[in-house]
Amino acid sequence: MWLMIFLKNIETQPHLLDTIIQKRIVGEYTYIMAIGLSRALISDSPRDYNQFCGKFKWDEDEEMTIGYFSNQHDPEEWIHKCIEDEIDDEEFFPLEEQDSAIIKEMSSHIWNEYITHIEDTNDRVIKSNYIEKLEEHINGAAKNYYEVNPPKGFFWTDDWNDEIVHFISCVKDIWGLDYHLPNSFT
């Protein structure tokens, strides 16, 4: 199972989740699942989290992305189809059996490994073994922007790359989460 993770905490409350993005490549498709603070967040209490799940691929010329997405991290169907930033929401698109299995596995991985949900406050809490990693600075050879200027509050797996995720996270009508990957990540 090849799962790439990008994790960010809330700077002033390091145990609380700002954004988690999980990416998995299966054949020609890239599956993306994310939970993060809402783009429309007005106050810190109660926190409002948005969700995202999608499946995308490059077109034949590798010039644009084509895919399906939903504003839930574990949808029962795709609510939208998109080609680049053009969105078709005229109809629902059923999940294929393989999509359901992949999404279930990804969702389970996020909740079992990285975060938990506190019902009373609606907070998403980062599991303790990752809080320490979020506080570390990375040493060694620079591979990307975050390793040149290592901030606290970010963690990503060694195999993380932002291909497709960067574009999707910057299209506000698709993403819906407050945090998006900066241009200088790669």
- Unreliable runs: 137-148
- Largest beta sheet, briefly? 8 strands, antiparallel
Distance between the termini: 23 Å
What number of structural domains do the residues give? 1
Helix count, DSSP H or I runs of 4 or more residues: 5
Please tally the β strands and state the result.
12
Helix content: 10-25%
Protein described:
With 186 residues, the protein is an alpha+beta fold. It has one domain (3-185). The protein has five helices and twelve strands. β2 (13-26) and β3 form a beta hairpin. The protein is globular, with a radius of gyration of 16 Å.
Note the main attributes of this structure:
186 residues, globular, two-stranded antiparallel ribbon, 12 strands
Task: Summarize this structure briefly.
The chain is α+β, with helices and mostly antiparallel strands.
Describe the secondary structure blueprint for this structure:
Layout: E1 3-10, E2 13-26, E3 29-37, E4 49-58, E5 65-70, E6 77-78, E7 80-83, E8 86-88, E9 93-94, H1 97-114, E10 115-118, E11 123-126, H2 128-135, H3 145-148, E12 154-156, H4 165-170, H5 172-175
Antiparallel strand pairs: 1-2, 1-12, 2-3, 3-4, 4-5, 5-7, 6-9, 7-8, 10-11
